[in-house]
Write a structure and sequence with these properties.
This protein is globular. The strands form 2 sheets. It has a 6-stranded parallel beta sheet with strand order 4-6-7-8-5-9, sandwiched between helices. The protein has a 3-stranded mixed beta sheet with strand order 1-2-3, covered by helices on one side. It folds into 4 domains: about 1-85, 2-Layer Sandwich (GMP Synthetase, Chain A, domain 3); about 85-265, Rossmann fold (3-Layer(aba) Sandwich), CATH 3.40.50; about 265-330, Helicase, Ruva Protein, domain 3, CATH 1.10.8; about 345-435, DnaA protein, C-terminal DNA-binding domain (Chromosomal Replication Initiator Protein Dnaa, Chain: A, Orthogonal Bundle). The protein is an alpha/beta fold. About 55% of the residues lie in helices and about 10% in strands.
Amino acid sequence: MNGYDILENLKMQVSKLEYMQYVSKIQYDAQNSQENLFIFLTDNIFLANWAKRKYRNLMIKFVEQTTNFKPEILFNLKSERQPPQIPQRKYIIKNNQYTINQDYTFEKFIVGECNEFAYKMTKEAAKRQKPNWNPLLIYGNTGLGKTHLLNAVCHSVYKRNPNAMIIYITAEIMFNEYRHRLQNKTMDQFRERFRKCDYLLIDDVQFLANTEKFQEEFFNTFNDINLAGGQIIMTSDKPPKLIEKLEKRLKSRFDGGMSAKIESPELETKIHIIKQKCELNNINLDSKIIDLLATQVHDNIREIEGIILKLHGQMSLLNMPITTEIVENELKDRGVEKKHIDFEDVITLVARELNLKPTEIRNKTRSKKTIAKARKIVAYIAREETNTTFPAIASELNLKDHSAVSKQIKTLKEEMQQNPQLKNEISNMISKLKHILQ
């Protein structure tokens, strides 16, 4: 069994178009692969992530059916094929789901208000010989950069101390190994591996709640690492108190450490992230397309990556550029399209975004520039995104008549033409309205 067999089997399981777009661009790295470790190479991180999500399980299943053994499947970039000569990297324990991404460093992490605290906490944890807080938990929705930060810790710690023992794993894979060791009566090897590391980095820690016995094992592992001065850093999609079936003593341990939430990225941060990912992979996107993706896809950067990868692959094959129309059609296919929005939805969100009260926006006062701006934005969005009539908008905003509403909207449109930042800000508000109603 080798990687060429795996790719040949995969070819038979996908359509001809999909094979040409994606599978044909994946190469087997025979030089660096091992008996039960198959390494494949791609041109860019987008294709690597796509292959990991779409094909990894199919490849593992094929090997399992043929050899009766579950292999490790990794996707690396071609630029990483000839790494510098360094000692065997046993300081990082690779698992069946992830490899350490060379682009996921602290230097390449885009920092905004949404993630600044989590960034600073993980960077500080990676610098210290002994932890100030244990464990450190980074939580937030999918696709916001939690895995990037764990990878960045690996890079940073190794740079500081190449001899450090780092284990980077998902809770699900950790549980699978625990179950395997338990069945084969080799728990001593499990404890030797996990309790004697300097850094234990666990992705998707919400899956710790598999069984009480596993939680007990993790509790003891945590205590041993903590007593020895090691650092535990975890990610989760929710805070500890909301993780179902998590034992009280583990919740207590988690609460005794430090938690940092990654929020949905603000518009400017999303735009910077998209631009960076395009630059890293030599993909050229018009600024209008970047703005469109940033404003229409609410917060999931991973979803935006998927859209870019798919369109880049399709358009490269057809030798055509990615246009605004193509992106809009793709968003429509994904269900990112106009939803029914009421006037109250508009005024509530605009008030929240500009730190005002809805009653202030409805008031006639013009003493504050922010209020005047808010009234124009409400009038514009209400007209563009709702069925509210001009007279109804005038009544809601205490304006004289429909002509006053028309003037407000016309003025704002002129300002948006002259100020792209204002245009993006309003587009982002509209995107958030749609997201709320999904």
